[in-house]
Structure formats: structure tokens, C-alpha cells
Amino acid sequence: MHAITVLPTDATDAKGRHRPGPENMEWSQVETPTPGDGEVLVKVHAAGVNRGDLLQRQGLYPPPPRITDVMGLEVSGTVADLGPGVTGRHEGDQVVGLLAGGGYAEYAVVPAGQLLPMPHGVDDVVASTLIEVAATVVSNMDHVGLEAGETLLVHGGAGGIGQFAIQYAKALGCRVITTCGTEEKRRFCTELGADIALDYHGDWVNGVKGATDGRGADVILDVMGAKYLGLNVDALAPNGRLVIIGMQGGAKGELNIGALLNKRGTVTATSLRGRPVEEKAEICRRVEEVVWPMYADGRINPAPVEVFPISEAGAAHSRLGSGEVLGKIALTI
Questions:
Q1: Alpha carbons 299 and 294: distance in angstroms, whole number
Q2: Contact at 8 Å (CB) between 125 and 77?
Q3: Disulfide check for 178: which of 51, 157, 263, 321 has CB 3.0–4.6 Å away?
Q4: Which residues form a coiled coil (predicted)?
Q5: How confident is the model over 228-268, as pLDDT tens digits?
Q6: Is residue 57 within 8 Å of residue 20, measured between CB atoms?
Q7: Could you tell me where the DSSP H helices lie in the chain?
Q8: 277: domain range?
Q9: Which of 240, 269, 298 lies at the terminal end of a domain, its last residue?
């Protein structure tokens, strides 16, 4: 089969670290994988592109042990073969898959519990971009116990995670505040349902307090990490919960424990990719049960999708890295 591989490079960044660029991605011949116990071989129709893929290409987000070096965390496609012990799946089934890697290929191996049927009314290209964000947001909102009537602050509301989180929280009956970098993106987020969209270049902490009569946000979903750590704690409501799912603003920050104590706040951080397959299977079941009906009845609309042929995966990475994408990117085979 063919898959996207990353060519070695002698180029280094300012710190002397090797960082292969998008031009080092090649659509080349590799061995077709064989499904093992409890696994399914999927003939890939389309693969979603995520920021984690960019980090993996740069050597900053390696796959978990025993996972292929081929990038790709989500796909749509057709069941092509079943490994030993798999039940409830059949060759020819149209599916969406959550992967720890391997999606940028003609065929991908997926644990059977991480396969979902196509959501009703969504085409296979768009479907390839849904499961990673849905699984991330739903698992984290379950983790911190987001409830109807609470206020959720979502950073980066115009991105794939943000767009889903805004709509999901509104469907749960929450108030939503988001941060974005441009007026166009802030307007887009309010059209999605955000009650307040703030400019992250400005004083968004006081913006959150002003929108909540000084109380702050009950839950904050953060992709920035270190850069926003102290600001997020300041923006928390009493008994508020900050959940960190990304490190776009750095990995090491300073935490004012006194401020956190005064708010009786919680700071937690989670990742999806390295979880045990049993946990990810449970998350996928939760997504199918709760989220797929929301797509079917229109409570949630998929993010806009920009499409690239998989042979142009490097161009797709450049596009996502530009910060100009309003939604998601998919690679088609």
C-alpha cells in the first residue's frame, strides 16, 4: 500500500533540533498492515489532519509504543478485514475510526472498539474529521463534570476543537465564552452559538469577569498550556475547573497556588492518544451515544472542511500551520 512517510533531514531549528518540514512528507510504498487480535483493517477514504500530526512530523509528539510512525489520528473508510476475535463488524461496513497513528495511508489498522458507524447525514470526507475533536471534548467535559447552567470558556473557538466545544456545551444548556484572534473568527463563533467572543490579544480575563458579573468561568477548556496558566486561574469561578488539553503556549508555567486555593479550584490535564484501548473504546461509545444524534438532528454542525489529496499532505500541513484555517482539513485518497 501507499502511506505518507517523513523523509530524514539535516535541517535544524535555532536550538539545533531536527524539525522536518512539510516538504519532507512523501507518498510512498510501505507494507500493508495486518489486523491483530481485536483489530480491524480499514480501507481509508479520507483522513483528518490535526495539530498533533504537525507536532509528530516535527519530532515533538512521537507515537505511543508499538504504534506505527505513519501519522493520522482519525479516518473514515470501509472495513476491509477483521482480526481474530472481532465481532459485530463486517467487511464493507462504512465506519469512522479513532487511531493512535496510521491514518495517512491507503489502509489503517484500528482497534474494533474505536470504530463507529458513519453519523447520519454526514458524507465520508467530513466524517473523517469528527471523531478526534468529539472524543477529546466529550471525555474532558465528562472528566470535569460540565453541567447545564454553567459557564464554559473555550480558547481558540474558531478551531476544530473550539467549534465543536461551543456547540456541544450549548446543546448541554451551558453559557459559552470563547477567545479568538480576529473579528471574523469572533463573529463566526457567535454564529455557532457562543454567547461572548473575546479578542485574545486584549484583556480577556476581565472580559470573562465582566460577562459573568465578576464570578468567572466554571469550566475552562485550554489548548495553550503554560502561557495561559496564571490567566486561566484568575478567570476561574469559585470551585472552577481548568482542563488543559494542549501546549501551544508552552509546557512549563508558574502556578499561584494561593490563588487556586482561594477559588477552591481544580487544574487537570488530559491527553487522548496514549490512553489504553479500553478507555478509548468507552469514549467512542459515549460519542456514538451522545454526539452522533446531535449531528443527526442539527444541534451540532460539522466544522467547515478544506480538502487536499493525500499526495499533497505537505501542503495540508502548511495550511494548518498558517493559523488561517476556519475549521478542519481532510486528506482524500
A1: 5
A2: no
A3: 157
A4: none
A5: 999 999 999 999 999 999 999 999 999 999 999 999 999 99
A6: yes
A7: 51-57, 124-127, 131-144, 160-171, 183-192, 204-211, 229-235, 257-262, 277-297, 313-321
A8: 2-130+273-332
A9: 269
